[in-house]
Amino acid sequence: MSTPQSGAEQSAEVERFRPTSGRFTGIVLLVSAFAVASLSVVQREHVIPEVGAAALFLGVVAWAVTLRPRISLVGDRLELRGAVDTVAIPLAGIEELAVRQVLAVRAGDRRYVSSALGRTRRQLMKAKAGAISLTASDPDTDPNSRVAAPNYAQYVEDRIRHRVDRARAAGGLTRGSTEQVALGSQVERSMAWPEIIGLAASAALFVALVVL
Membrane spanning segments where (predicted)? Predict the structure, then answer.
């Protein structure tokens, strides 16, 4: 029999989830940008500096937009790491969440979106068809009915919902209550300064090379 977790143990819980899309494209763009930027330095007679600076800028964009976004459960908060910032939302303050083509979370009467988790249109259509099929048949009496295994996006959504429900119960909060909305507004946001500086510096370098 498992023993109840203490507050310290719960606050130390960390679950990090891999992004569901964009990784391959981001890696290809990043490697290509690095290769072109390197050639502009090594082969100056064949690749003009402006092209190298543009490739450097696109490489930073590729990293920030496709590779940096990630979703994590860290203690009593849901962390949504985006292109240029990270938002930490109190789990007990989350009012609603849904995974469509992106993850959408509502907390403190505000909506937060993460592109790190999503379903393809095919997966959405398949899930809708499965829901209709289950409604039309009774899986307890119909031997031909089968519940499809959840995909990774569904698994992550279930994990987040589980942690949200547990945090809400631990705090004695009612969904949609004034207390929950107030807690949901206590969102912490930190800026991704390396990415912001990289974007600004590479863009400034490109402009300077074009002007000069």
Answer: 21-41, 47-67
Q: Helix, strand or coil for residue 29?
A: helix
Cβ–Cβ under 8 Å, residues 145 and 130: no
- Tokens representing 41 are 């330095």
> What phi and psi values does residue 109 have, to the nearest 5 degrees?
60, 25
pLDDT above 80 for 183: yes
Dihedral sign for Cα atoms in the order 164, 165, 171, 176: positive
Taking the CA atoms of residue 77, residue 79, residue 80 and residue 84 in that order, the dihedral angle to the nearest 10 degrees is 130
Q: How far apart, in whole angstroms, are the C-alpha atoms of residue 168 and residue 149? A: 28
Helix 49-62 / helix 193-211 crossing angle, nearest 10 deg = 160
Q: What is the pTM of this model?
A: 0.80
- Cα–Cα distance between 65 and 115 in angstroms, integer? 9
Which SS3 state, helix, strand or coil, does residue 114 take?
Answer: strand
> How far, in Å, CA of 72 to CA of 116, rounded?
10
